[in-house]
Write a structure and sequence with these properties.
This protein has helices spanning about 100-110, 115, 130-140, 150-170, 180-190, 200-205, 210-220, 225-245, 250-255, 260-270, 275-280, and strands at about 1-5, 10-15, 25-35, 40, 45-55, 55-60, 65-70, 75, 85, 95-100, 120-125. It is an alpha+beta fold.
């Protein structure tokens, strides 16, 4: 894997040459950009999906087309289309992106009729559920896990399928998830950005709801308070890393958003009944 630099990036990464066994993943990244920074006009030979985590961006393409992305928006552009971006919010712009060969996914799943859904340029808004799908591709691409090539290919296929579903199956319309839209948005944030030190006030601001109302609504919909939901999301990710990676417990604690190894060990044992080391010993293949 090769890490590249792009002007205007404050933090994050842009990676290419991900996995020689999965050449359909061309590049991917998780980046934060300065206010008024721009990505100059360019084109590429693959498809690219952008997901807006925070901030506001104008995406332009030839022919005068313009898309304004806000948190929860995606933007997709196909091969050989000249396009450029301008980050216009005063706060840093946080975005996830994946460059990929859509034809390879279409060949694996001809029954999906992929190209009927993927126009050369399109955007979707209020699709916060796709942050989880994008994050899974980035995780499979950058964290050393067992069966990584298979996991990466499956993550890409699932991302494409989730984008297709977002056209006709908005998350608020799914009868199997009887949750308030604000709670759904909050749980997606906690499950995908669990490394961040979320507070009740911050999440309430994200979903544009009063602190007291949101706290009550969240517990009614999930059965637990917000801080416990966040701990569960972190421990769930830690379990995956303990099973499938060679990272140390200290490294896993940091990766999952815990400030100290002691806090991680206490929280892990409280939820699972055993220590992280014991869990790893029991789940070694």
């Amino acid at each position: 894997m090769k890490l590249l630099h792009q002007d205007g990036i404050i933090s994050g990464f842009w990676a290419t040459e991900i996995d020689p066994l999965v050449p359909e993943i061309v590049d991917c990244g998780d980046t934060q950009h300065r206010y008024r920074s721009r990505v100059a006009p360019h084109l590429h030979r693959h498809w690219e999906l952008h997901y807006q985590v925070a901030g506001k961006t104008n995406h332009h393409s030839v022919g005068g087309r313009k898309f304004i992305l806000k948190p929860g928006s995606i933007y997709c552009v196909g091969p050989d289309i000249n396009h450029w971006h301008e980050h216009i919010s005063r706060q840093p712009v946080h975005a996830l992106f994946v460059g990929f060969d859509l034809a390879a996914v279409a060949a694996r799943h001809p029954e999906w009729d992929v190209f009927r859904h993927f126009a050369p340029i399109f955007s979707l808004h209020s699709v916060h559920q796709l942050e989880r799908s994008m994050s899974r591709v980035l995780e499979e691409a950058t964290v050393v896990l067992k069966h990584q090539s298979s996991g990466l290919r499956l993550a890409l296929d699932m991302l494409v399928l989730d984008v297709m579903r977002a056209f006709s199956d908005p998350v608020g319309a799914r009868s199997s998830v009887a949750k308030h839209p604000a709670v759904l948005r909050a749980t997606h944030l906690l499950e995908t950005r669990f490394r961040e030190p979320w507070s009740l006030n911050e999440l309430a601001d994200h979903v544009e709801m009063s602190r007291a109302h949101f706290a009550t609504l969240f517990q009614q919909n999930t059965g637990i308070p917000l801080h416990k939901f966040l701990i569960r999301a972190r421990i769930s990710h830690a379990e995956q890393l303990l099973r499938n990676s060679e990272q140390s417990c200290q490294s896993i604690a940091k990766e999952c958003g815990f400030t100290t190894i002691q806090h991680f060990s206490r929280a892990f044992k409280l939820q699972t009944g055993i220590t992280p080391i014991r869990f790893r010993q029991q789940h070694r293949v």
